[in-house]
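Researcher: Structure for this, please.
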Amino acid sequence: MPTELLAEQRGATLLLTLSDPSTRNALSREVYGRGAELMRQAAQDPAVRAVVLCGEGDTFCAGGNLQRILGVRGMGPEQGKAYQAESINGLKAWVMSLVECPKPVIAAVEGFAAGAGASLALACDLLVAAEDAKLVMSYSRIGFSPDGGGSWQLARFLPRQLALKALWLATPLGAAELQAHGLVSQVCAKGQAVDEALKLAEQLGQLAPNALASVKKLAQSALRDDLAQHLDHEREHFIDNLFHANGQEGPSAFLEKRKPTFR
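Model: Predicted structure, token format:
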């Protein structure tokens, strides 16, 4: 039976849990489809203010299931290539749903996040990692190349030589090292990643959702826009948020010295 993706509402936070400790929460096409669908629902649900993604047990995710992947070779080149392309497109859809969700998405990583599991963790907006957690792009060990955007993330945010070493030699990257390079937002004690991620999600859930969505879009566009373009985008978002209902509540609460209630 493939890994399940369990969904649980914790207050205003949607907790998504990869669940199959027997395979260290290995991934499958079914999980990709359910993950993308749950993220689409979360994006539209006003009761969800943030999303936390974790793995059951002491491993975040071991990546793809190698027995299943080897089975694809047995289909023959034509059918197997089409099947695998469809599977990777499913992973792409889930990754893009994490990136494009207007709400904060937080990865809570215990133990290892390997292969596509590492790619999923890196696709989240924030990453809370246990002090002994490690991310490893393990593809080269079995003669494969990455999927899920992990190589894009590492090449974009790590020094070139460190990224290539991690991708070529499948060198595990520890939580402290990733935090030093800005890929981990918070390091916590072993076994506390989910609790700390939920606390962070609760803090974010008290802020104005429209403003959080604007910040996420601006942070993403800043990587591709020049300063003049970015200033234009900031102007547009600022005006939109000023004339949002929360644009009245925020300043009023500040002036009245009370806690705002954002919707």
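Researcher: Any notable elements?
Model: The beta strands are 4-10, 13-19, 50-55, 105-109, 112-114, 126-130, 134-136, 173-174, 186-188. The chain has eleven helices and nine strands.
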